[in-house]
Amino acid sequence: MQFKINPKNLSTTALRVIPVLQGNAEGLISDKLGNISLSKNLFSGKKDTNYSLAIESQVVLLLGLGEDPDYKTMETSFRRVLAKSSELVEKEVLIDFPDSFSREQIEAALVGFQLGAYSLGFYKKEKAKDYSKLKVEVSMTIDKAKSLADRAQKIAQAKMEAFKLVDLPPNKITPEYLGDWAKNLGKKSTLEVKVFDVKKAKSEGLDAFLAVGRASAKDPKFIILEYRQPKAKLHLGLVGKGVTFDTGGLNVKTQGMHYMKSDMGGAAAVLATAQVVAELELPVNLTVIVPALENAIDKDAYLPSEVIGSHAGLSIEVIDTDAEGRLIVADGLSYLIKNYNVDQVIDLATLTGNSIGTFGYECAALFSNDGNLSHGLQQAGEEIGEKSWPLPLWETYGKEMESEIADIKNFNGKPFAGAITAAKFLQAFIHEHPAWAHLDIAGVAFGDSEFSKTKTGTAYGVSLLLRYLENQL
Which residue ranges does the record assign to the Cytosol aminopeptidase domain (predicted)? Predict the structure, then answer.
């Protein structure tokens, strides 16, 4: 997709897209289209509406955004252009922004417009419309317009990578694939990448990680990405759960298993975040860890009631092999904190169905031992449209995870407070780090969407983490 910013001569044959705010529709349409007038009954700029009309050789698409559109509204509205109005698009599109639009509104619009080109039909004989050579003219009265468009392209590309990592099938997205993905990113960016195989992971004491992955024919990979900037004042550590497919292990899942390719939504988010942070050259230090494996079943599968080790040195009683995500994230957290001097630690994991029972599909469950970190993530999420809401980490819940035979157990076996007790389990492995946050993204990383007939990846976490980081600068 090729962007041309503020062309001197606006195309008269391209699809012309004009975003319209409610309450200003009549004046804007008159300003942009001359003597054309529309009845308010046909189009008033109301949120989630659109209206198309032809003026001589040009087709015009008016996008209604409501009175005060937030970032997510802008992104979604513009995503619909290519995703739902493809019949209006030929070789060229002109996006004609009103003078009143802010940099943030334009960024969200340009990100969303590009996301509209994403299609799930990777393996279809008849491919979706190819927008790779689409010419996009952008008219806007903003300083440094070219850099704004470049930034929007990098954000959109990272989010589409996150979409793809979740949406592609598990015979494609394997632990080895994620390791190779990270290595390839390292070759074309300033990221340093390490990928531990089984032998190296064993020598590093990643025993809980290895226990979960030992039944799979696909070897686990422990992935580390390091991004460094000389002027950085913050070192953020990220851990993303990377279960590329989850059968549940010997506590096998009894329903919805075909959705379990999405159990690496946390990994997708932190990998894509590493990509966009490196491409934008943000003045921060970033260390990203992805424990990647399959939770499979064979003669070597780890057993319910088995006691396993961990990187932190704690013994773990395995009550449920389907509570595997917390085991590998625990090793990821411990390794990160013991080997890197990170100021803050955030993990993202599709960890518990209980988080969905609490919040539905509206927001992530947020846990943190640091009020500023928790508030910062909440604020960033509100600004960008990737919401989270805090739940407590009271010690009473920690007692639920006490084991008679080991230092801790991985599941309390009770049908309540499951997201909280999982978070308390993870907290036991952070070596008392004072600034840690856990985002349980089970309800927001993969779900129903107006852009697909089936559940798809959402890239939840990419925009959230980027906004959070930039708010710290």
Answer: 164-465
